Amino acid sequence: MKTTRREIIQMLGVAAGTVVITPLFSRGVSVAKEPIKPVDFPWPYSKLDPDVSADISYKGYEVGRCMYGTFLGIIGRLAEEKGAPYNTFPFLMMKYGKGGVADWATLCGALNGAAAAIYLVSNKPEPIVDELFGWFQQEKLPIYQPKDSKLEIVPSVARSTLCHVSVSRWCKVSKFKAFSKEREERCARLTADVTKKTAELLNQQLASTFKPVYPIPDHVKQCRACHDKGGTLENTRGKMDCSPCHFNLGTAHKKI
Ligand code: HEC
Ligand code: HEC
Question: What pLDDT score does 31 carry?
Fold first, then answer.
């Protein structure tokens, strides 16, 4: 249901016809009675050492888990190097993304934290997120090896950006339990991997050398041609790989 301008103004507790709110609202700045102070955005990015950021994320995982870890590796590192405005961010709020948002196992927290960081510092964030998520779905992770550990962690391919699929596919490959120390170590290392990749991509974008190499795979493009925007059915949306969930397609496709 569409909310009319009149209803919005009423929700705001302002008499209809009072004009102050309308221009602010239409600019998407504020729906509160008091307009929020405009903030310069996005914050400027400067080149990071991907390995330094990865180490920060690995250690950050212990404090606030996956989403906090990746966000700290990028924005926390910028705060260390540059101070304000990066150091004004309430970093600990990023704990919300742990275990795919408050342990719901939806979007992988490492990816969620990276995407938040990317949107905070990039003028053109979506291609970077696309590349990061595409890479995450297809690569064997984790790769990161902490300097003071000889422990081997078996890598696996998530085929998904979801915490649930990523963790359970790893459990299947490694034979460890979802609440084991090994799984935690796996996610801490994967958090470092995601940060390293994110820093590399942001560095490339800054240097105008960014070239995506993880496009949406052809088998997913095919599905989307009928089921996504502009397709004959247009009854779905998204860039996730469909195949881990829809491996047993019904008779509707036999004729295709
Ligand atoms: C994480 C698992 C997952 C992924 C990934 C996924 N889907 Fe689904 N999809 C579902 C579930 C669960 C439903 C709901 C099925 C139901 O209730 O019958 C669904 C429903 C659908 C439906 C409607 C099914 C019907 O019976 O009408 C279509 C079409 C569909 N998905 C296409 C896609 C396409 C295309 C992709 C890839 C771009 C995709 N899905 C990715 C899990 C997934
Ligand atoms: C040429 C168009 C076309 C392509 C390509 C296509 N579909 Fe479909 N899909 C259909 C049609 C038509 C239906 C039947 C819709 C109905 O009966 O309401 C359907 C139904 C579905 C359904 C629900 C019923 C079922 O068969 O399970 C799912 C899920 C689905 N498609 C997923 C996918 C995925 C995943 C891909 C890629 C591997 C894909 N589709 C590729 C046209 C397409």
Answer: 59
